[in-house]
Design goal:
Number of strands: 5
Shape: globular
Strand order of the largest sheet: 3-2-1-4-5
Distance between the termini: 48 Å
CATH topology of the largest domain: Nucleotidyltransferase, domain 5
Protein name: 3'-5' exonuclease
Strand content: 15-25%
Radius of gyration: 20 Å
Number of domains: 2
CATH class of the largest domain: Alpha Beta
Pfam family, one: RNase_T
GO biological process, one term: DNA metabolic process
Largest sheet: 5 strands, mixed
CATH superfamily of the largest domain: Ribonuclease H-like superfamily/Ribonuclease H
Keywords: Exonuclease, Hydrolase, Nuclease
Number of helices: 12
CATH architecture of the largest domain: 2-Layer Sandwich
GO molecular function, one term: nucleic acid binding
């Protein structure tokens, strides 16, 4: 199989969200491959492994994934196991994860070989904007992807089941939009279809008047700024250029 025909979905369970203070305690993966018929599908490349985080797992994170210290005792450390999973022998066109920015904190270019990443969350925002939410599990039950075995995708918040569910979203995204488009969308901030918080929460950007929309173009949240500016561009037909106030807001 050529390297450009495989995307490996990665899911991590960790002791927290901020390395190096926190570390990986489980990794799961599921491959999605391009067949001779030009369609992407899941294949036999999958697995999971405990990882010794080199520290105790806090109770607050145990309560999420239910992985305990005794489960990871004697498991390989992250630098020992990560390269063989992130850089498989047959190569990958990309790595993928739902909200991939989290996995990328731990899967550094040194460990991954510099592979590009697809964020299935960002791609879902583009392809399925009417979803009630864009979490991995809400998309699972809103979309009901073909071929997804319910039991195999459980329990939630364990590395392989979550990777397995994400791989079904990725398969459908690849078949709908193609690899290059997913990579391009993943390289940009998330294009939110609706305002995510505040008094306008749940409103589509096109429903906001010009003055209200302009306020969001200098929001602290990168995804909100990007989404509001895209709507400004749609209305004007020109590339968005922040005024001095918006630029100052970004610097702050």
């Amino acid at each position: 199989m050529k390297p450009t025909t495989r995307v490996r979905v990665i899911d991590l369970e960790t002791t927290g969200s901020n390395p190096p203070a926190h570390a990986v305690c489980e990794i799961g993966w599921q491959d999605v491959v391009l067949g001779d018929d030009g369609r992407w599908s899941l294949d036999a490349g999958h697995g999971a492994s405990f990882v010794d985080p080199g520290r105790s797992i806090p109770p607050v994170t145990m309560a999420v994934h239910h992985i305990m210290d005794e489960d990871v005792a004697g498991a390989p450390f992250w630098p020992e196991i990560a390269p063989s999973i992130l850089r498989p022998e047959k190569g990958v066109a990309a790595l993928a994860a739902h909200r991939a920015s989290f996995e990328q904190r731990f899967c550094t270019p040194k460990l991954s070989g510099g592979a590009p990443w697809i964020c299935t969350w960002k791609c879902a925002l583009r392809l399925w904007p009417d979803s009630p939410s864009f979490s991995n599990q809400v998309l699972r039950y809103w979309r009901m992807p073909e071929g997804l075995d319910h039991a195999r995708g459980l329990p939630v918040h364990r590395a392989f089941p979550d990777a397995y569910v994400t791989a079904h979203h990725l398969r459908d995204q690849l078949n709908e939009a193609g690899l290059d488009q997913l990579l391009a969308w993943s390289a940009e901030p998330g294009l939110l279809p609706r305002v995510p918080y505040g008094a306008d929460r749940g409103s589509y950007w096109h429903e906001l008047d010009d003055n209200l929309l302009k306020r969001y173009t200098s929001d602290r949240n990168e995804d909100v700024r990007f989404s509001a500016r895209k709507e400004v561009e749609r209305r004007s037909g020109d590339a968005f250029e922040p005024d001095d106030g918006a630029a100052q807001g970004e610097l702050l």
